[in-house]
Amino acid sequence: MSLDLTATMRTFATGICVVTTYEEEGDRRRHDAVAVRSFTSVSLDPPLVSLAVPRDSEVLATLLAAKVWAVSILDVAGLDMAEALDGDRETRARALLTCTATPGERTGALVLDAPGWLECTLYDRHDTGDHTVLIGEVRATGGRYRRPPLVFVNGGPRALSEA
User: Fold this and answer.
1) This prediction's pTM
2) Helices and strands, counts by H and E, the chain
3) Which Pfam families match (predicted)?
4) What is the arrangement of strands in the sheet containing 131-142, beginning at the earlier edge strand?
5) Any idea where the domains of the chain sit in the sequence?
6) Which of 31, 71, 128, 155 keeps 20 to 30 A from 106, CA to CA?
7) Is the dihedral of CA 22, 80, 112, 116 positive or negative?
C-alpha cells in the first residue's frame, strides 16, 4: 500500500481563513497575517478553536510572542487577499494595507471585513510533526453572511456555490 497523503487530502474541502497578529515595535504595532486552511472548532465549553502553523513559518514566532490573534473566515471576495498572504513578510504587510480591517476590541489583532471572525488568546500549543497546533480561547466573535464561502479543494481555492 502506498501512502500519498497530499493526493488524498486535496479531496477534502476546507475553509480559508486569515489569521492576524502583531508585534510591538516601540510605540507602534507591526501587524502580520497568514492564510490558513487548518482551522477548526475544538470545544464549546470552554470556547476553543485550533489552527496549525508550519513550524518554520515567520508568523508562528509572532503568534507565540503576542499570544493573541484574530481569525477572519473568507468568502469569495477574499481570494486575492488569501493569495497575497502566501508571500514574504513585506508582501503580507502590503496586502494588509489594502484590506478593510479594524483592531479587535479584545486582542488588538486585525479583524478583516469578513463573513465571520473570532478573536482568540493562546490557550495551549502542541508541536506536532512539521507544524505547531495552536489552541485558542475565543474571546469575541461576529460577522454576517454576504457571499458564498471560499474553500480549498483539489489543490486550489474555489467558491462554494449554494445548492
Assistant:
1) 0.89
2) 4, 12
3) Flavin_Reduct
4) 28-36, 17-25, 68-73, 116-128, 131-142, 47-54, 39-44
5) 16-144
6) 128
7) negative
C-alpha cell belonging to residue 118:
473570532
The C-alpha atoms of residue 111 and residue 142 are separated, in whole angstroms, by: 10
Looking at domain 16-144, its CATH class is mainly beta
150 and 160 Cβ atoms separated by less than 8 Å: yes
Q: Do the strands 156-159 and 116-128 form a parallel or antiparallel pair, or are they unpaired?
A: unpaired
**Pair 18, 85: CB distance under 8 Å:** yes
Q: What is the largest CA-CA distance in the chain?
A: 57
Among residues 133, 114, 154, which one has the least CA distance to residue 13? 154
**89 three-state secondary structure:** helix
The grid cell for 135 is 489552541
